[in-house]
Amino acid sequence: MDVLEDTRTLLTELIGFATVSSVSNLDMIGHLAARLADCGAEVEIWHDETGTKANLFATLGPKRDGGIVLSGHSDVVPVADQDWLSDPFVMDEKDGKWFGRGTCDMKGFIAAAVVMARQYAQLDLQRPVHFAFTYDEEIGCFGARALADTLRQKGIKPAVAIIGEPTSMRIIEGHKGCYEYTTHFTGLEGHGSGPDQGVNAVEYAVRYVSKLLELKMALQGRAPASSRFEPPWTTINTGALIGGVAHNVIPGKARVEWEMRPVQMTDADYVKDQMHRYCAHTLIPAMQAVHADANIKTEVIGEVDGLEPMDENAARDLVMELTGANGADVVPFGTEAGIFQGLGMSVVVCGPGSIDQAHKPDEYVSVDQMAQCLDMLGRLSAKLV
């Protein structure tokens, strides 16, 4: 079979599923499930509590521990307010590139893996190969976390995972974590002419952000000497401060949306502890001295651990052999890889396309990158028999 043309066809179909994180992914998951079942894979679909999202986990080969996982997320980021030259959900080919939302992030890898399933199914497999396709990676890796829980409950223990996020086919053995929060401030509204009569939620939110900025600087001095990340320290970013209704109204509500990207777990614990203490001992007492019901609460949007570089990494060694690469890198962006590592697997991130194209209008993956990915997955066949 012409695997590149088959991949192009399947990717065209996958791009047609507008699986933005705010909507269901069930049609795409059902489409992939049917394709894998046709190859003889044992396919399981595990829904979320709403029934509108699902993970797919399929297996070819013997039912035993030690398998290899090929993993990708089914959701894509929105296209609203982006200036596309073509319909983002209709794949377009031009100048050796395939354009469309999700082509590189990361339906290209999913299409390649599913196309190769037909080839794997014809082998006398001695080692299982698993296909893990998740929901809601873009908004907190909720699907991967649910998948990990299910694998634990069922006692399924693969040994190696290849996460096909766009890395330009470089082997990535480490990345920072991604912890996202929304902190809500409840004060007391009043007229702007009497500031002492109310509790200004925006002003307390500003003080909260000021503390985050203080910790942001302090974290630079905590960077491990061996850190390979750029920058080498844990970062904090304030994404939004929202509150207020008018010039002359003391705002009673505000919220701060922020994140940190830890290079080590002790940094995450340090930031959370410092912010908790600052709120509990400084901000909240001052707020409640005026209004007893004033408060600050932090909502955890997602806490996704990073992928820790390991001296011994079977996944890295395997993919180096498959691709001919002579080294591995680290990156600052996050993926689901740390969740798979938390299950005891050796993990790398390696996939077609560049992260520079992800989330942007006119997202694309080059045909050359897809060919390289298919070559890597083709060489994997020899490791399964």
Account of the 3D structure:
The chain has 385 residues and is an alpha/beta fold. The chain has 2 domains: 3-175 and 307-383, Zn peptidases (Aminopeptidase, 3-Layer(aba) Sandwich), CATH 3.40.630.10; 178-304, Alpha-Beta Plaits, CATH 3.30.70. 34% of the residues lie in helices and 23% in strands. The protein contains 9 helices and 17 strands. Strands 1-2-6-3-7-16 form a 6-stranded mixed sheet, sandwiched between helices. Helix 5 runs antiparallel to helix 6. The chain is elongated and about 75 Å long. The mean pLDDT is 96.
Task: Supply database-style keywords.
Aminopeptidase; 2 domains; 385 residues; 9 helices; four-stranded antiparallel β-sheet; Alpha-Beta Plaits; six-stranded mixed β-sheet; 34% helix; alpha/beta
- Please give the oligomerization state of what you see: single chain
Mean pLDDT: 96
Residue share in helix: 25-40%
The count of strands amounts to 17
Runs with pLDDT <50, length 5+?
A: none
- Which sequence of SSEs, written as H and E, runs from N to C? HHEEEEEHEHEEEEHEEEHEHEHEEH
Number of domains: 2
Gross morphology is elongated
Number of helices: 9
**Distance N to C terminus:** 21 Å
Give a quick precis of the structure:
The chain has 2 domains: 3-175 and 307-383, Zn peptidases (Aminopeptidase), CATH 3.40.630; 178-304, 2-Layer Sandwich (Alpha-Beta Plaits), CATH 3.30.70.360. 34% of the residues lie in helices and 23% in strands. It is elongated and about 75 Å long.
How do the helices and strands line up, and which of them pair or pack?
Elements: H1 3-15, H2 26-38, E1 42-47, E2 54-60, E3 68-73, E4 92-94, E5 97-99, H3 103-121, E6 129-134, H4 142-154, E7 160-163, E8 172-175, E9 178-186, E10 190-191, H5 201-218, E11 235-243, E12 249-250, E13 253-261, H6 265-288, E14 295-304, H7 314-323, E15 329-331, H8 337-341, E16 346-349, E17 364-366, H9 367-380
Parallel strand pairs: 3-6, 3-7, 7-16, 8-15
Antiparallel strand pairs: 1-2, 2-6, 4-5, 5-17, 9-13, 9-14, 10-12, 11-13
Helix pairs in contact: 1-3, 3-9, 5-6
